[in-house]
Amino acid sequence: MAKRARDPVQFTLESAERIASVVREAETAPPAAFPLTFAKRFAENAPRQVRAATFSGAWPIGSAKTVTFKYAPTATASVTNLSWPITSSGYTAENCIVGKDGTNWWLVVPVLEARTSFFVAQTASRTYCDGASRQNVVSDVSISATLNTNNCSITIGKTVTTATVNVVTTTATAIFLLDGYTSSFLRVRVP
User: Fold this and answer.
1) Tens of pLDDT along 29-75?
2) Cα separation of 135 and 148, whole Å?
3) Burial class (CB in 10 A: 0-12, 13-18, 19+), 69
């Protein structure tokens, strides 16, 4: 059976003595070179850090604002906002996360809130009556004639039938929802 990487190692007495003599010799020998150091390998990589902070008032994109670090109330930094449109001036000690890259501080994310919105997938338009009036109209006229042969006269009779109708005076067009869906999104919290 082949030995695996994590199997325990067993030494013979001779092997242990040989290893011990090499260790003693290395410990008593004068240093041959400078001691090992663990300096930065790339000087251009400056330290990065992320901190919790607070700010007040509006903070438009592209502008800098002085923030106060959350757990060090006397420590502040000038932080640039590159991506969050914070236009409300109602913010007072609003929480945010800021990050340092090199010597510059940047707004990473303000407080966000989840919102659900309804999105329209399909609509239809319909025209409907926006104004109407009721009017009486003649719906039927009956005419009759009678001939009197004694005096050679004709009597004509007329019967009028009326009805009430609704007359459309104005119309409007409306858009009706046929299909839609909901979706969640994040937005900057507005106080």
Assistant:
1) 776 666 666 666 555 555 678 999 999 999 999 999 999 999 887 89
2) 39
3) middle
Q: How far from chain centre, in Å, is Cα 119?
A: 13
Q: Which amino acid is at 116?
A: T
Cα separation, 79 vs 98, in Å, equals 7
Based on its alpha-carbon atoms, the radius of gyration of the chain, rounded to whole angstroms, reads 46
**What residue ranges do the domains of the chain occupy?**
48-110, 119-188
- Span 48-110 CATH architecture: Beta Barrel (2.40)
| Tens-place pLDDT, residues 101-131 | 888 999 998 888 877 887 788 888 888 777 8
